[in-house]
Amino acid sequence: MPGLLKKTLFCLASILSIASVVLLVIALVTQKWVTGKILCKTGADLVNASDPELVKFIGDIYYGMFQGGKNWQCGLGNRRSKIYIFPHLVKKLNSALHMIIILFLVIAMVFALVSLVFCIYNARKIPYQSIKGPAGIYLWNFIAGLFGVSGIISFIAALKLHRLTERVANFPENVFQFVTLEEHYGFSFWLCVASAATHGANFLVVAITGIRFPKVKIKKAEEPTVTADDLLY
């Protein structure tokens, strides 16, 4: 059976694996991967709006992997609309890249769960095979972190190289054209970054389990010995 310190550390590694999965699930189901401001270019061009008047044509947008929303103005007042990525909008985006991002994050969750199982196993038993021990935990965390980081990089590529925000903002508009003024990564995106960071923390925690700390030996007090000569004295 592993010692108390190792049990505690592997339990901590288990919590980190659970946290990684929870963070990714929340990131996928929430709608704030990107937040930004959009300008109704068509409306602004029609009235030849100057800088002070552009405020009347600026709206907000936010979206995630599946849904989002926008609040837009084209000189006709404030309007709100929901954004649904599936089933139609995804066809106007780089659909293959969008699906790859989701797939990467799902695979990261699967390997984070595998890491969880191995952490629980190591907290209860001392494995005889190295792949079932810390080496296996390193491997699964590396794979989970790799796919998580790949999903993050793929999303950044979609956002910057494929002008994702403008494509989302202009669907399914046929009359008005929107351009992106600002775009920022939302909390859903940073949840993915935090999830990838938990695997790095897991590496550190599991590495500590391999350190052999010196055992503190408590010196027993010597018991007084009474001899026959002491009794005679």
Automatic annotation (TrEMBL):
GO terms for cellular component: membrane. It is found in: Membrane. GO terms for biological process: sensory perception of sound. Its main location: membrane. It is a multi-pass membrane protein. The chain crosses the membrane at residues 9-29, 96-123, 135-159, 187-211. Belongs to the clarin family. PANTHER family: CLARIN (PTHR31548), CLARIN-2 (PTHR31548:SF5). This is Clarin 2. It comes from Acipenser oxyrinchus oxyrinchus. The lineage of its organism: Eukaryota, Metazoa, Chordata, Craniata, Vertebrata.
